[in-house]
């Protein structure tokens, strides 16, 4: 299973997601442009020494990313979906795609996804933090596919 971040804007979120990937065994794809310099100290501070235990792939743009993942199923996490992650059937080789913090993904990217799901939350709030959403989503996908680490 892979985590893909579309044009992430906040270094600390990316660092936390890299640490999550290291802990749960998920590779992380970063679709550029990034909203910060890759050598930003906040990435390393949030990832700590876990950054050496996660596979990271950087892609120049969405087209390069799509070419790199081949025919793998792309599942978009979006507040605009009506399908809950708890009703969706994940597969072990899915790529879990998350949009940029300020704007999600453009329609053309969303249209290219095999599935669109949302994390259920109270209607009074707009969205969760990117790293928190990724943790919930990856945990559920790994649970469903019986691929949680030991």
How would you sum up this structure, described in words?
- By secondary structure, the chain is α/β, with parallel strands linked by helices.
- It has five helices and six strands; from the N terminus they run E-H-E-H-E-H-E-E-H-E-H.
- A six-stranded parallel beta sheet has the order 3-2-1-5-4-6, sandwiched between helices.
- Helix 1 packs parallel to helix 2 and helix 1 runs parallel beside helix 5.
- It is globular and about 35 Å long.
What are the SSEs and their pairings?
Blueprint: E1 2-6, H1 11-24, E2 27-31, H2 41-47, E3 56-59, H3 62-69, E4 74-77, E5 95-98, H4 107-111, E6 115-117, H5 130-144
Parallel strand pairs: 1-2, 1-5, 2-3, 4-5, 4-6
Helix pairs in contact: 1-2, 1-5
Could you give the order of strands across the largest sheet?
3-2-1-5-4-6
CATH topology description: Alpha/beta knot
| Helix and strand pattern | EHEHEHEEHEH
**Helix share, percent:** 25-40%
End-to-end Cα distance, whole Å, is 16 Å
Categorize the overall geometry. Answer: globular
Q: At the first level of CATH, what is the class?
A: Alpha Beta
Task: State the CATH architecture.
Answer: 3-Layer(aba) Sandwich
Whole-number average pLDDT? 94
In CATH, the homologous superfamily goes by the name SPOUT methyltransferase, trefoil knot domain
Number of domains: 1
Structural class: alpha/beta
Largest sheet data: 6 strands, parallel
Q: Which residues sit in consecutive blocks of at least 5 with pLDDT less than 50?
A: none
Number of strands: 6
Give a summary of the structure in a few sentences.
The protein is 33% helix and 17% strand. The two termini are 16 Å apart. With 150 residues, the chain is an alpha/beta fold.
